[in-house]
Amino acid sequence: NSYLPDYSKFHKLNSSNSGRISSDWGGLWVHTMHKLLPPEEYFNKHPEYYALRNGVRIPDQLCLSNPEVADIVTKNLKEYMIKIPNAKYWSVSQMDNFNYCQCDKCREIDSIEGSPSGSIIRFVNKIAENFPDKVISTLAYQYSRKAPKYTLPNDNVNIMLCTIEADRSKPIIDDKSENNFYDDLVDWSLLTDNILIWDYVVNFSHLLSPFPNFHVLQPNIKLFSNYATMIFEQGMPYKNIEFNELRTYLISKLLWNPDESTDKLMDEFLNAYYGEASQYIRQYIDKITAELLLSGEKLTLYEPPVTYSSNYLSMDNIREYFVLLNKALDAVKTDEKKSKRVELLLQSLRYAYLEVSKNSPYTKDWIFEKDSLNKNFVLKKEATDILEKFYEISKENGPELLSENETTPDEYYNKTKEYFKNALVPDNKAVGKKIRFEIPSSRLYKANGETTLIDGVRGNEDFHSLWQGWWGDYINAYIDLGEITEINEVEISFINNHFSWIFPPESIEIYASDDGKNYTVIGSLINREALIKKKPQIETFKIDIKPVKLTRFVNVKIKNIGKLPDWKGLNERAWLMTDEIIIR
Q: What is the pTM of this model?
């Protein structure tokens, strides 16, 4: 909504598509180091211009202590300015990753300053000295959010201070946890009054998932207004994401008057936008917010709905929310425009239902139930109906993407249909048998307990729930099939997602034993692509057992790659995330 010129003009807002920001205001916009020193042009000839990590130069960030880097960035920035001579604000800012330079010189600066922001501010100050009539903006973001101890930003250096890690279940000023945002805000304000707050107000990985953060908007904006000269509230410019219109309206009003009552503004909007349905929608908002606060759970920007399946997004709660919004729909059934608005709001509950139910195996909330003979699991008609309704409405009305940068409604529909079809593994001879591990999975990723890997249910692309994880450790699993069994094949799936430090295995070995004591190898596999950078995906490996083996005990040894590959730039261990071990 803030991207609509008329809306922005009426509410006196600025946004990149509103018609209120011209080239006179700004040139480059954040994460600009690669524009100013392109790796494809410089890295091969001058790797010393880029970050040193674990003794290896990588192109992810620049080496900010190298004087040649400052010279080239200044020259290239000047060329950009020639193209837009009237633009006042120019961003010279870090790339969107954590791989800042750790060469001796950069490390020394950051050690003295107590934060990687030290080398950034010293570098940006050098650039800003060459452009006294411009404002050079840089990010205080993730690893650089903490202010430097000694170096003051130049007068023409703007700090974009970002709240990306903050807990949205409580006002920022009430967060007393270690490394909280409020302390950093105060520290930066002691160094400069040229601060822009970059705040985030939606779940970027699940744009349709219910995200009850309305109660923190007013106190946070009020806090920001005491320390910053500019505030940027980031949602997403896609149509019909969860409560997009209400959230935009509240923020629009609060930015101009942080003392306004959120309750008053919310009722004002709901009555005008939803008419007779507003009372039920307000009850829904109040209930979902109360359930979040009651749980004490953090509300962060990228968590999947299943993270909250034991509290505000429990299936019992989701069903109660459906009741309220269906009452809202009934209240405006003769008003086509308002009915459609309520129907679009119901999309967030349909999405939450699908995501939570997929990840609730063998519970009453699962997408599957026993058939009429109480023998086999079959897909619930309810799950199919909700998916079809969700797809019908989202295909026509959006949003264009269901997460920040990926997954169209078509893709989500097809993937979910495919999962409905393939989630159950009917031919796994290990289902219902016994399994033990030499090293148990991490407590962070234990899924549904020890039998997760032989429960007959495949994991989906969200690794947070149905996958077990080992951090840096190998997997050594012993399966007792209960009796001598014919084995033809072993199939195992893994997550490959280097952004989350998750890599497929280096190798797999399968052993067999008749007595559970003496094992012989019956199959193996070496994964020669384990360290190759790929897009996030599920990778499945099948090991043929030839000749066919009769055995009772099966030992599966899966080798973790151990340390992350050099190109990740981190001296850390890799996660190994696995799902069903299928024995056929």
A: 0.93
Structure tokens at 228: 């910053």
Q: Tokens representing 385?
A: 């109906």
Predicted local confidence at residue 18, as pLDDT: 45
The token pair at 61 is 């960030």
Tokens of 435: 């399994």
Tell me how far the alpha carbon of residue 366 is from its chain's centroid.
Answer: 24
H helix or E strand, kind and range, residue 247: helix 244-256
Which structure tokens are listed for 429?
A: 């001879």
Could you report the per-residue pLDDT of 156-191, keeping only the tens digit for each?
Answer: 999 999 999 999 999 999 999 999 999 999 999 999
What is the distance of C-alpha 42 from the center of its chain?
A: 31
* Separation CA 522–CA 488 (nearest Å): 10
Say how far apart CA 171 and CA 217 lie, in whole Å: 8
Dihedral (Cα; 390, 396, 397, 403), 10-degree rounding: 60
Tens of pLDDT, residue by residue over 303-327, are 999 999 999 999 999 999 999 999 9
Tally Cβ neighbours within 10 Å of residue 107.
16
Alpha-carbon distance of 4 to 430, in angstroms, equals 57
Query: What single-letter amino acid sits at 91?
Result: S
Give the CA angle between residues 81, 87, 93 to the nearest 5°: 70
Measure Cα distances from 264 to 253, 276, 581 in Å: 11, 17, 55
Structure tokens at 173: 């000023």
CA distance 565 to 559: 15
At 347-395, the pLDDT tens digits run 999 999 999 999 999 999 999 999 888 888 999 999 999 999 999 999 9
Structure tokens at 124: 């940006």
Residue 48, CA distances (Å) to 56, 69, 101, 105 in order = 10, 9, 10, 12
The 3 state secondary structure assigned to 495-538 is: EEEHHHCECCCCEEEEEEECCCCCCEEEEEEECCCCCCCCCCEE
pLDDT band at 93 (very low <50, low <70, confident <90, very high): very high
Q: Quick one: which H or E segment has residue 444?
A: none
Torsion of CA 302, 305, 310, 314, to 10 degrees: 150
User: 562: Cβ–Cβ under 8 A, 6 or more apart, which residues?
Assistant: 472, 506, 573, 574
Average pLDDT estimate for 129-136: 97
Closest CA to 480 of 547, 541, 429: 429
**Kind plus residue range of the DSSP H or E element containing 491:** strand 475-496
List pLDDT tens digits, range 485-522: 999 999 999 999 999 999 999 999 999 999 999 999 99
Length of the chain: 584
Residue that the structure tokens 């989500």 belong to: 412
